[in-house]
Design brief:
By secondary structure, the chain is an alpha/beta fold. Helices cover about 40% and strands about 15% of the residues. It contains eight helices and eight strands. An eight-stranded mixed sheet has the order 3-2-1-4-5-6-7-8, sandwiched between helices. Helix 1 crosses helix 6. It is globular. The termini are far apart. The model has no long low-confidence stretch (mean pLDDT about 90).
């Protein structure tokens, strides 16, 4: 069994590498920096885990094309990403930064990394690198919270979630055995947000988070085209009411009428 984990030299990604390595997975440890990536690999190897470094730079689409050379990947975990520019007058890690304070450049950088980079990883691996029953997991977040909306970050995750639904539905249409789903692990102490365990009772450690994500991976359920919240709640659509209305309307009136065609 083999897994590629992006952003795995630290935080949630490294904890997942440890957790899956202890389950017997061969670890392809994806990271931008070869120095930091190799250091993380050595830590895993010291634990008796079979691990090797794979360069994964979500900002370099040309570099990501090299991933197409990989083979026999059973599990892809898209964990890497950036928070976007969350610096404000309140500090460097202001997760409550006003959405009005983000620039177009902030949005573009974060979308390029978190959405386009993740899309490129999946696209490079899909044709020949993933096994027949491969599972793809995207680490994601809620995108419509009233009191928590770091704009660049949640916008990129919303796009990533839309991609997950689209890819998952295509797997179903093609009767593929592959799965893709998202996991929202909740508040986690990482370098991404500057949070620390103990700051708030709801903040998890990366190790606790890795165990949570692993639970959903190995629960023997098909989670294709789903987003799973940390409490186990499953979301199959962002617009359940609207989706139901559209389906009923199309069934009643026909697709052409629904699209305004004659």
């Amino acid at each position: 069994m083999k897994t590629l984990i992006t952003g795995a030299n630290k935080g949630i990604g490294f904890a997942l590498a440890q957790t899956l390595g202890r389950r017997g997975y061969d670890i392809l440890l994806g990271a931008r920096s070869e120095t930091r990536g190799q250091a993380a690999v050595e830590k895993l190897q010291a634990e008796g885990i079979n691990a090797q470094f794979v360069k994964v730079d979500l900002n370099d689409l040309a570099q990501l094309s090299s991933l197409a050379q990989l083979r026999d990947i059973d599990l892809l975990i898209n964990n890497a990403g950036i928070a976007g520019n969350i610096k404000s007058d309140a500090g460097d890690f202001d997760m409550e930064k006003s959405p009005f304070a983000y620039t177009t450049a902030d949005l573009q950088e974060t979308m390029n990394t978190n959405f386009l980079g993740t899309h490129a990883v999946i696209s490079q691996l899909l044709p020949h690198s993933l096994t027949e029953n491969a599972v793809i997991v995207n680490i994601t977040v809620p995108v419509s919270q009233e009191y928590w909306a770091p704009l660049a970050y949640v916008t990129s995750k919303a796009a990533q979630n839309a991609m997950m639904f689209a890819f998952g539905h295509q797997f179903s249409k093609e009767k593929s055995a592959k799965q893709i789903f998202g996991v929202m692990p909740g508040a986690v102490a990482t370098d991404l947000n500057g949070a620390k365990v103990g700051d708030n009772p709801v903040i998890k450690s990366p190790e606790e988070t890795a165990e949570l994500i692993s639970h959903f991976i190995f629960d023997n359920k098909n989670h294709n085209a789903e987003i799973i919240n940390f409490d186990g709640t499953i979301y199959k659509s962002y617009e359940p009411g609207l989706r139901s209305k559209i389906i009923k309307d199309v069934a009643k009136n026909g697709l052409k009428r629904k699209l305004g065609r004659k």
